[in-house]
Amino acid sequence: MSDMTAPSAAVTSPLHDLALKAAPAIETFNVLGTQIAAVQIGDVVAAMDRWIEARSSGHYLAVTGMHGVTEALSDREFAAALDDADMVVPDGMPLVWLGRRTSRRLERRVYGPELMLAMCEHSVAAGYRHFLYGGKPGVAEVLAEKLAERFPGIQIVGTYVPPFRDLTGEEIGELKGALERAKPDVLWVGLSTPKQEKWMHRFSRTLNVPVMVGVGAAFDFHSGLKRQAPRWMQESGLEWFFRLVSEPRRLWRRYLIRGPRFVFCVMVELAGLKNFQRQR
Fold first, then answer.
1. Which of 12, 85, 166, 178 yields a CA-CA distance of 20 to 30 A from 237?
2. What is the DSSP secondary structure assignment for residue 14, as one 8-state letter?
3. Which tens digit of pLDDT belongs to each residue from 243-278?
């Protein structure tokens, strides 16, 4: 863990309550019981702006693709984390395609690594402060250096690399202390799905941070630890194949078991044979 800069004045606005009331309603569409926000990256950045300016804690974003939606069918804890998120954004072309069926304008997916870069770039002028939680030992520190090189003036105020298990009470206290000293506006969580969503759901009300965002592999991609799929594969819905070939032992179950299950369940739901709506 490291605290990387001294705290600066919080970003506040005397009109934040009015701004929140005037915020546009986010349209959603349902995919196998999960409400997906019909948004683009600019919409998400604008929502994060509102939450940060309001200085209210407890907001978190779930960046989810077909893997997450399918996982939620059999994992109640994860389903609850998605249901309680302030926004579940479509990080996957299959979700975008399904959203387009209901006449919602979705030009592109909200790709987690791209959202992270967009918010980091935006935050330089806004003066927002970032904290990086997750990744393997050393990855968050390298990521902080890479972001600082890419976005001069960005405020990365701390990092924390958790153990590969639940945090102990002492470790939770240590993390809370680090966040209280660093006063971040955005806590980026890189633990992979569904672990990161469950983590944010558990700690969203106890950590004094305006916004948490689970971005999974973005830590590895932007630190240079792993390669991203070519843009044409990302945009055509073939990123899954690139990642499967790159990490077959880790990802085969996600794409070769949950992928076909997702397709089957969507077909069943579209045919009217079963409704996957969840009780909330």
1. 85
2. T
3. 889 888 888 888 898 899 999 999 999 999 998 988
